[in-house]
Fold this protein.
Amino acid sequence: MSREIRVGSRVVAKDPVVGDLIDQRYTLRREIARGGMGTVFEAEQLETGRIVALKLVHRRSRFVRVSEEQLLIEAQAISAVRHPAIVELLDVGVCAAQGPYLALEMLVGRTLDGIIASRGTLPVRDVAHIGRQICEALAVVHERRIVHRDLKPSNVFIALEGGREVVKLFDFGIAALGGASLDAPSGDREAFGTPEYMAPEQLLGEGAVDHRADLYAAGVTLFECLTGTVPYTGTMGQVVSKLSRATAPPSVRVLRPDVDPELDEILTVTLALRPEDRFASGRALARSLGLATGCTEGATHLLGDATPSMREEFDRLSRLPERGSPTSRVQRLFERVPYITMAELNHNGATVEGRSEDISLGGMLVRTQETIPAQAKIRIKFTLPGEGRSVAVGATIRWCREARGGHYASGVQFVDLPNDCRKAILDFVRSPGHATS
């Protein structure tokens, strides 16, 4: 697909690509994530050499002006909070060619959405730690009179900091600041929130939307962590219909019987249909989660091995002999580490776009919106970690599992990986930033 907008033969706007220089200050090194209204790149700041996450707006979007407004709202919200559990804003500017941009701290880790997609469900203790950190961060956000309004697993990041996993909230683009409201363009309400995570009053337009809508979204997020699904699934119309008929939120124990009744009751209160029946604050919910589970402090352990079967698979892949080695000696075992970058999987002449979740010497874990059958031979194109160089290598789909929302998680095994690629991946895996306690 072309990334240029033309009037006749003249290019009037161009979406950013790897290698572009933004505002004469940032060089784009690799594409990390792509959404409907913008793209996030790993970028290098020329003056300092610092690596940042640079967020830019799609120039071809019909909502380009609204997207630019959202970017500036996000900058204001993050600047107002400045909390360890909120992604740090490093810089904001306006580029003549690309419009406004945000430079955010570069995080090492994975989105909660990606973790759920690859694992299905999460241990109760990890869910309690996630919930406690989300709610404590929301408490600070709400004290600044800000409502996030788009909390969901894809906007929650599990990051490695100092060998410890921590929660980071991001994407405040549709936040309400100081009680201000932001109407969706042309009545497109779904573009301003994800229906499955929106509180009834937010989705149905009944009454004021305040901080308790964020607590409802936190409840949906925790429900999904525990069960692999959400209380009310479907499109905008389907969710509205289900909520209109609901008399009480569903019990998590129906899908996850091992959940303690006290935790189930906490989620029932969090997902209450009326705002006044929910917890009064993020701190109250965080305290209740800690007391109900015994997890009043501590961290998650989600960035290592996912399941015994997946661990066995990646362990085997990591022991592949070095290409070109004169002997059949086996490499030492190297753990896979988080690595998010856009990827293209070519299968039988068709290209499937995806995003990696982690990488090892043996392969990658990749999410796509289309399925590729197990044992299929493919070529995968991605950006090498640490180098910013795009490569395409042969690979095999070792396994594929369906995740919620029409996504798929696939284990990709490299085939005949070139030595320079092996070195780049090995250096990245061994880097100090990936050490865990």
